[in-house]
Amino acid sequence: MLGWHKERADYLAGLGVNVPTGRYEVDGEDNTGLGMWTYEAFGGATFYLNQAKTWNLAAVAFYATHSSKEGSNQKVGDLVTVEGGLGRTFKQGSINVGLVYFGQWKVSDDDLGLAFTPPDDSPIDLPDLGRHKILGAGPEVTLPLASKKTYFGSVTLRYFWDFGVESNAESQTFILNLSVPVPFLSLTE
Predict the structure, then answer these.
(1) pLDDT recorded at residue 146
(2) Where are the domains of the chain?
(3) How far apart are CA 168 and CA 131, in angstroms?
(4) Number of neighbours of residue 110 by Cβ within 10 angstroms
(5) Alpha-carbon gap, residue 153 to 180, rounded angstroms
(6) Using an 8 Å Cβ cutoff, are 139 and 98 in contact?
(7) Do 104 and 117 meet the contact criterion of CB atoms below 8 Å apart?
(8) CA distances in angstroms from 69 to 23, 34, 90, listed in the order given
(9) Using an 8 Å Cβ cutoff, are 156 and 176 in contact?
């Protein structure tokens, strides 16, 4: 991931790879992994809406493509995801409160890897799984974990309500994220 800081905006761009971990078998009923590689390019920005940088507006977009699943020629379709939010900082920027959003769209079809023809050449009736779409929004708060002299990290609490869902069930999601700095990896003093 690369990032740039400007007076009223921060930018980022990067590439990510998710490796297949966990147990995976074709048609397995107790899989703990997905059995595929995922490659993801992303870019985004945070804009500061006032000179004091207490109001921020952020967005990041991701494009993900996948390998075939282990032991098959099945392949999940490509995904576009956009997420971000509008927030306000307090306590010299150590606390951020705001509204967050996300959207995800499948932009190519899944390939079920069916490479056979029925003996009588009749068409195969497969269910139309469609390309899913999901939107969500909700509140978020980020709080510091610190003493008077030491910063230990931060915790983010986020809650989403899904809406505009196609090919999935609507749900609600609670996310707790803990961020801890790793001092020996710091590139600046």
Answers:
(1) 86
(2) 2-185
(3) 10
(4) 15
(5) 4
(6) yes
(7) no
(8) 12, 7, 46
(9) yes
* φ, ψ for residue 87, nearest 5 deg: -140, 165
DSSP-derived secondary structure for 13-56: EEEEEE---S---TT-SS--S--S-EEEEEEEEEEESSTT--EE
Q: Which of 158, 115, 111 is nearest to 138 (CA)?
A: 158
Tens place of pLDDT per residue across the chain (189 aa)? 999 999 999 999 999 999 999 899 888 889 998 899 999 999 999 999 999 999 999 999 999 999 988 888 888 889 999 999 999 999 887 899 999 999 999 998 888 776 555 566 665 555 555 678 899 999 999 999 988 888 889 999 999 998 888 767 778 899 999 998 877 555 555
Specify the amino acid at residue 148. K
Rounded Cα distance, 141 and 89, in Å: 10
Exposed, middle or buried: residue 40 (CB in 10 Å: 0-12, 13-18, 19+)? middle
CB 126 within 8 A of CB 118: no
Q: Position 25: which residue type?
A: E
Burial (Cβ within 10 Å: 0-12, 13-18, ≥19) of residue 5: exposed
Q: Is 25 helix (H, G, I), strand (E, B) or coil?
A: coil
Residue in 146, 152, 156, 155 with CA at minimum distance from that of residue 85: 156
Q: Which of 97, 35, 102 is nearest to 70 (CA)?
A: 35
Provide Rg for the chain, Cα atoms: 21
